[in-house]
Specification:
single chain; 149 residues; alpha+beta; 4-stranded antiparallel sheet; 51% helix
Length: 149
Amino acid sequence: MSESKRSVINELRQLNLSLRAQLEQAEARVPVINALVAQLAEIELVTEVAILGLVIYQGHYSALTGPHDSGPVLQSALLIPGGIGVIYWDSEEYAALRKNPHRNEWDLFLRFSHFDDCPSAVKALLLPQVQSLMEQLLSRFRFFWKDGE
């Protein structure tokens, strides 16, 4: 086997191992976080919160079943109620949102897919976004701690 083929195989192996490790970590951490977020929702301190993170995936629809000029866009999100998951957009809808960021929050809840319902690959891709989403959520409640404690 040539050196370039070995290199490609090794890169593919590393990608596979990395995604599987991220999936394992995500499945260990996110359900605990989502349970705590559900407890926040239960005490009704806030009734509806939608925190949007980064886009974690942009792709194309199936050549056989989907439109050819657009594709799915998955954006990390933390919703109360709901927890951590993704917002599913069509690329054209996402582009329109970027041009006019005034959004209907109810629409976000309708597009939301909870972590538990996401495919394994999406769960793995969500892991790097968890810390940022949590920091954004906690920053909304800093006024509860005296002197930033």
